[in-house]
Write a structure and sequence with these properties.
The chain has 394 residues and is an alpha/beta fold. Helices cover 52% and strands 7% of the residues. It is built from 18 helices and five strands. The protein has a five-stranded parallel beta sheet with strand order 2-3-4-1-5, sandwiched between helices. The protein is elongated and about 70 Å long. The N and C termini lie far apart (73 Å).
Length: 394
């Protein structure tokens, strides 16, 4: 086999889209491999679930399976019920793994009225190569979207129609992997006829998170593949294997991630702060309500950077949700370390169910504001004041 420079450069990503290397999702992987083995693949599949659970990863890996030159030969057997996975070594697999296969097309949200996916294909390949588990906000920020909304434009739909009307260059199929068809909006009507009556050997793989935001006319033309939420154990195991994390550290991150492997990877790559101690310190300051103290805390916290601020807020949400379970049921079997559990039990004496719910709502809003680049000093000083009012019942 002749060497291909671009494939050699991206060789480290060669197995990252392989079905067998995707975190968890054994049920879905088994179904997809059986589907590929039957050679009766529906012309449109909708992978429904959070990107952090692997819907985009599964769609990309399934595209590789379908294009693999050795599929159906029995030369490579996956561990999953002895079903065939992509071989990972043929020319088609090498190109698919580097996201340069000429018959696997990608469509995704972009920024700009007339933008098309090909304008950002280099950034997209890097994004997928690093991790196919990151969310839309992470992707759009890479495009310097700031507060602009992402979309899949009319021009993108026209480009898709043109691409899929051509004959396949070298693959068994022409495949379109579309990430987040929710961003199509009404422009999705332009693709209805193509999805309903696609050219021969053409397959649509749509990776979506919110079914309610997709046109019903598109949904009715797709076979639904529901993606399971990852368990804490699967997330922790994935972190240990991929990042060689200490098992205890991986387990703590998995607790906070809530089944979102993208969020877990982001947390693992950020500085290992003691969010528990910092969060409890903030609560105490908010309870006291000393203005000078809160301003000083806010100024220091604003220096941490957006990702660390988000991780802090996610920890706060995790702690408050576990506290809510404690208050509602009295059950002390929680996803908290012993010291955290003791603190939660003490705080349950002064925080009732309603107050915890208000704090959770505030934290969810703050995560959104941080993602949209809100001024951290103003945001967290205002939040501190609101928290004081909630805690005091004002």
């Amino acid at each position: 086999m002749q060497s291909c420079p671009i494939l050699d450069v991206i060789g480290t990503y060669l197995r990252r889209v392989s079905m067998k290397d995707i975190i968890g999702q054994e049920r879905v992987k088994s179904f997809l491999l059986q589907l590929a083995a039957s050679e009766r693949v529906p012309h449109a599949l909708l992978f429904l679930g959070n990107t952090g659970s692997g819907n985009l990863a599964l769609a990309s890996a399934f595209a590789q399976v379908l294009q693999c030159e050795k599929s159906g030969t029995g030369l490579f057997q996956a561990d999953n019920n002895d079903l065939e996975d992509a071989c990972g070594v043929c020319s088609a697999c090498r190109k698919a793994a580097a996201f340069v296969h000429p018959d696997i097309h990608f469509s995704f949200p972009t920024v700009g009225t007339n933008a098309v996916s090909n304008d950002y294909i280099k950034e997209w390949r890097k994004f997928l190569g690093e991790t196919p588990y990151s969310d839309a906000n992470d992707w759009l920020q890479r495009l310097n979207a700031e507060n602009k909304q992402g979309n899949i434009t009319k021009e993108e739909c026209n480009a898709i129609i043109k691409k899929l009307s051509l004959k396949a260059f070298e693959g068994r199929y022409k495949i379109l992997v579309m990430w987040l068809p929710e961003y199509l909006g009404k422009e999705g009507n332009r693709l209805l006829k193509l999805i309903e009556e696609p050219p021969e050997q053409t397959i649509f793989l749509l990776a979506a998170e919110n079914q309610d935001q997709i046109l019903n006319t598109i949904l009715s033309r797709c076979q639904l593949v529901k993606i399971d939420r990852l368990s804490d154990e699967e997330v922790a195991t994935g972190l240990e294997k991929r990042l060689r994390l200490d098992p205890e550290r991986a387990r703590q991150i998995a607790f906070l991630a809530g089944g979102d492997f993208g969020a877990a990877l982001a947390a693992a790559e950020s500085a290992e702060n003691d969010n528990a101690a910092d969060f409890l310190d903030w609560l105490r300051k908010c309870w006291r309500g000393n203005a000078v103290e809160l301003v000083k805390w806010t100024e220091e916290f604003a220096k941490l950077g957006r990702e660390n601020q988000k991780q802090f807020l996610h920890y706060g949400l995790h702690f408050l949700r576990e506290m809510m379970a404690l208050v509602a049921t009295g059950n002390t079997t929680l996803r908290l370390r012993p010291t955290e559990l003791a603190t939660a039990q003490n705080m349950a004496k002064v925080l009732d169910f309603d107050k915890i719910g208000q704090l959770i709502g505030l934290f969810n809003d703050n995560i959104t504001f941080v993602e949209r680049n809100a001024n951290p000093k103003i945001l967290f000083l205002d939040s501190s004041i609101q928290m004081n009012k909630i805690l005091k019942g004002v």
